Amino acid sequence: MSVSLKEFLNCTNELLKPEAFNDYCPNGLQVQGSETINTLIAGVTASQALIDRAIEENADAILVHHGYFWKGEDPCIVGIKHRRIEALLKHNISLIAYHLPLDAHPVMGNNAQLAKLLDLTVTDGLEPGNPHSVGNIGRLAAPLSAEQFCQHVNAALGREPLFIKGGDQLIETIGWCTGGAQGYIDQAASLGVDAYLSGEISEPTVHSARELGIHYIAAGHHATERYGVQAVGEFVAEKFGLDYQFIDIDNPA
User: Fold this and answer.
1) Residues 57 and 159 both lie in one domain
2) Is the same domain home to 117 and 212?
3) Which structural domain range is residue 234 located in?
4) Contact between residue 59 and residue 36 where contact means Cβ atoms under 8 Å apart
5) Tell me: the pLDDT tens digits for 178-234?
6) Domain shared by 7 and 91, yes or no
7) C-alpha to C-alpha distance for 174 and 135, rounded to whole angstroms
8) Cα(26)–Cα(202) distance, rounded to whole angstroms?
9) How confident is the model at residue 40 (pLDDT cuts 50, 70, 90)?
10) Are residues 22 and 39 both part of a single domain?
């Protein structure tokens, strides 16, 4: 089966509500290709490797979390950006990207999907009172030592996390935000949780964890953000009867 590009975008925009976010990049259609979608490829980042795989699969559209045209970047279409966009245009492939909306969706978002994978119960947003909070706080199914929880994360994500000890407490309550959200550690600590998990870590994060008395787990930017785009891709592919696959381009960061 197939769907028009317009109907596809109406569906994803209605689902993810990009107008509710002040984002760092445009959300939705970033590069226009075929007016009809039969084959959809999903991935985390619109790298050349993902585009090449999509071309091999005769894809009409690529759905990603990390697309193009970020605030502050050089706007010139040269070098890597030129090669990527040229390949999309040459093969008439649409690039569709959702950043913060794909982090925050309460069911299909990266944070919700990570909670499901790690068996965490969401109790509130990391920004209480914000209905579009991109991070969450919640509880483990049962209290674990920090070492036990890190083993749990490793088993679930297939990637050994970086752990910074912030005390002797068991982990029962936790805050989390996928990707490059290490800066939320202060917010998580202010909410009184035992631990905070994000994808990336920065040098100051180590000192914050130790001095705030909160365990910190860096589980990998890519590793924590593989799941939202899969959930959305599967949803729209089933809705419209599309040929679909998720392609995971390995990234240890």
Assistant:
1) no
2) yes
3) 3-102+227-246
4) no
5) 999 999 999 999 999 999 999 999 999 999 999 999 999 999 999 999 999 999 999
6) yes
7) 11
8) 26
9) very high
10) yes
Tell me the C-alpha distance between 64 and 46, whole Å. Answer: 6
Enter the tokens of residue 187.
Answer: 């917010």
**How far apart are the C-alpha atoms of 249 and 234, rounded to whole Å?**
18
Angle between helices 110-118 and 146-157 (to 10 degrees): 110
- Which of 91, 83, 100 lies closest to 47 in space, CA to CA? 83
Q: How confident is the model at residue 158 (pLDDT cuts 50, 70, 90)?
A: very high
Facing residues of 125 across strands? 136
The answer to whether the predicted template modeling score (pTM) of the entire model surpasses 0.90 is yes
Task: Write the Ramachandran bin of 165: left for phi over 0, alpha for psi from -120 to 50, otherwise beta.
Answer: beta
Q: Helix, strand, or coil here: 105?
A: coil
Q: Which two tokens stand for residue 116?
A: 């499901």
Please give the helix or strand (H or E) that residue 7 lies within, else none.
helix 5-16
Q: Is the distance from CB of 61 to CB of 5 less than 8 angstroms?
A: yes
The string of pLDDT tens digits covering residues 168-189 is: 999 999 999 999 999 999 999 9
119 is written with which tokens?
Answer: 């068996």
